[in-house]
Structures are given as structure tokens and as C-alpha cells.
UniProtKB/TrEMBL annotation:
GO terms for molecular function: phosphoprotein phosphatase activity. SUPFAM superfamilies: (Phosphotyrosine protein) phosphatases II (SSF52799). This is Protein tyrosine/serine phosphatase. It comes from Promicromonospora thailandica. Residues 108-144 form the Tyrosine specific protein phosphatases domain. InterPro entries: Prot-tyrosine_phosphatase-like (IPR029021), Tyr/Ser_Pase_IphP-type (IPR026893), Tyr_Pase_AS (IPR016130), Tyr_Pase_dom (IPR000387). Belongs to the protein-tyrosine phosphatase family.
Length: 228
């Protein structure tokens, strides 16, 4: 793997925002800069943060949160609301079961989110949920895997979220602590294990997503869009 340093973006109010440009690909090359951005919820943005996000020239914002979350914490950016959970879907712990459960229950929703990255107008696409870790982590990992990203780098990028969100979690009231069974911050093995689960069950990430509604045209467009 070539050296890769995540490009953290300074959008005041959000802690976990980074452009994935420069992330290495297994066959050589990198992810194109200003193509795919991941973040915690824009609901955290200050006025200066909204201005910074707007100035970045976002072509599309994909909000993966549930409707109850968006109602409670509105998104200040123009966005597509594409939740990857259905009403009443459980959230199992520990982490590995949470991720595989999400992927197994709603493949069509994950395929729809990845398709929305491919179909976006030219410019950076922002994918976010609440913390920018779990649902965002899965959609980003699926997208990066589909274009041939180095899995070591995918895991390192996922794990970088822990340090970025530590100040927010440290300030939480004890009554709002992470649910039992999910207290320990997840390591890169969680996201890599989720990808391995997809490959073991479906053959490949591409087979999983195409079987759920992603088209071969989406795959070609996504690779052209993200591969530098």
C-alpha cells in the first residue's frame, strides 16, 4: 500500500469530515480528490461550517439517517434523504453483528445509496449519517471496494473516525452513553469483517450491490468518477 494521509476538512461544528481523495487503489492510482467526502451529521455545523461546506462545491449530499433522526436534527444542506434502515429495524450489538445485520436486511437500500453517488452531478459527493461512522462507514466501504480501493487503506480510514469523534463522546452525559455491547470503539477489523461477510455470502461487493439493484452502468460511472 502507498502512503495515505486522510484529508480532514475544517467545517466548524463537524469533527469527522474528510475527503477520500488520494486513498490508494490495489491496481495502482488513487481515488480522485474532491469526488467523495464522508462526514458526521451536518446538523452539527455552525454557520461558519455551513459556509465552509457550501464553499466546497458539494454536488450532492446523501443523508443516510432514519426519518426520526432527520426530524429531530434537521439537515441544513440541500440533500437526498436515503436511509439504509427500514422502520423498526433492530440494531444488534456488538459491532460486527450490527454491520452484517444492516447489510443483510436492506441490500436494496445500500445499492440505492451507492447508485446516488454514481448518479450525482459533477463535483464532490458528501455521504453522512449521524456520527459518520457506521452507516456512512458501510456505504463508503462498499463504494471504495467497488472501485478497487486498497482494503488496508479502507480500514485505516474507517478507524480514523475513532480519534475524530473522541472529544464528542468524552463530553456525553453518562445517560447518553453508547449502548451496552458497543462501548469499545470499533477497530478496522469491524469494517473489513463486514466486507468479508459480503464476499463470503455473495461472491463480491459488486455481486451484492448489482443483485440489489445497482446497474452495470452505475458501476462503470462510479469507477470513472472516483478513479484518478
Amino acid at each position: 500500500m502507498t502512503d495515505y494521509t486522510p484529508l480532514h476538512l475544517d467545517w466548524p461544528g463537524c469533527l469527522n469530515t474528510r475527503d477520500l481523495g488520494g486513498l490508494p487503489l490495489t491496481g495502482g492510482g488513487t481515488v480522485r480528490p474532491r469526488a467523495l467526502v464522508r462526514s458526521d451529521s451536518p446538523s452539527f455545523l455552525t454557520d461558519d461550517g455551513v459556509a465552509a461546506a457550501t464553499a466546497y462545491g458539494l454536488a450532492r449530499v446523501i443523508d443516510l439517517r432514519r426519518p426520526d433522526e432527520t426530524a429531530l436534527y434537521p439537515n441544513p444542506l440541500a440533500h437526498l434523504h436515503l436511509p439504509v434502515q427500514g422502520p423498526g429495524d433492530p440494531e444488534e450489538g456488538p459491532w460486527v453483528h450490527l454491520y452484517t445485520g444492516l447489510l443483510d436486511r436492506r441490500p436494496e437500500l445500500f445499492a440505492r445509496a451507492v447508485a446516488a453517488v454514481a448518479d450525482a452531478p459533477e463535483g464532490p459527493v458528501l455521504v453522512h449519517c449521524a456520527a459518520g461512522k457506521d452507516r456512512t462507514g458501510l456505504v463508503v466501504a462498499l463504494t471504495l471496494s467497488l472501485v478497487g480501493a486498497d482494503l488496508t487503506a479502507v480500514g485505516a480510514d474507517y478507524e480514523a473516525t475513532n480519534a475524530r469523534l473522541e472529544p464528542r463522546y468524552a463530553a456525553l452525559d453518562p445517560d447518553r452513553a453508547i449502548p451496552t455491547g458497543r462501548e469499545i470503539p470499533p477497530t478496522r477489523q469491524v469494517i473489513l469483517g463486514a466486507l468479508e461477510h459480503v464476499r463470503a455470502r455473495h461472491g463480491s461487493v459488486e455481486d451484492y450491490l448489482v443483485g440489489a439493484g445497482l446497474t452495470p452502468g452505475h458501476v462503470r460511472t462510479l469507477r470513472a468518477r472516483l478513479v484518478a
